[in-house]
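This section describes the prediction task in plain terms. A model, or a person checking by hand, is given the sequence of a single protein chain and must write out its three-dimensional structure as a string of tokens. No templates, partner chains or ligands are provided. The sample shown here is typical of the held-out split.
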Amino acid sequence: MVRPNPSAAVELAPDVAWLRSSFANVYLVGKAENWVLIDAGVVGYTRQILDAVHVRFGENAKPKAILLTHGHYDHVGCARDLIRLWNVPAYAHPMEFPYLTGKSLYPRKDPTVGGAMGFLSRFFPARTVNLGDSLLALPPGNEVPALPGWQWIFTPGHAPGHVSFWRESDRTLIAGDVVATADLDSWRGMMSRKKQLSGARSPFVYDWAKTKTSVEALAALRPHVLACGHGEPMEDAADELAAFATGFTPPAKGRYVDVAARTDADGVVYEPPPPRDNLPKMAAGLVAGVFVLAGVVYRKRGKNAQRDFRPAEPRS
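The expected answer:
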């Protein structure tokens, strides 16, 4: 997709546009007089989101609400700033409330699933944001606030209260992190951003069985446009998503592969014991080895310097 204006969001379906905030996407959905922001991107991108809103809807435009697929840090990074600036509520599934109000942390990340994202997840924050009284529950009956013709779909697994947004009339699906349209588990896929279906950020999945069920539920919708939290939106996505759902399997290893974490309305109830993670020890051993080698080299140079030292000849 060609972006004609660096500050503009890209139209992907009628009244639906997307904007990348670092490696995560946000979506502007609706018309100028009645629109919402879906997800709030990575921290530090408030200005870019506001610029895109001004280009699309006008200088003083503000949404009816912010809708959150879930509360991981890369989907709520600008939420507090935007809520304060716009004075609007944020909606999420009630099962996400513990993680959006400071009551609980998410199930611990699982770097042992391997891959590029597994390695990088060690450096990602665990806490998200506290939205306090600005946080409201998505209404029962799957209606979406301020968006007639849309419905929210409960799609847990990646997060306990994860939801996706669906418009039946033209089969447009905003899937959050149920799947991704870039391979985030490989270094090549992460760097190239080649458009392809893959699992979304595997180290953050706390229940692989629920994730598989959610993938299958979205595939059954036969979406034409598939817009995810990561990667560029895809068109004519129905067959590819169906094939992905059919072949979906959890990683070969990982903390939650055999036993899922358990959560309830108050947050995390149980986490299985972590498997052995050799990387920190390997990294510590490597650092120690470097220091030992540096010490050997230093001592050797010191001995050589002593051996080669010649006192100055006394002056006559």
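For orientation: The CA atoms of residues 111 and 123 lie 10 Å apart.
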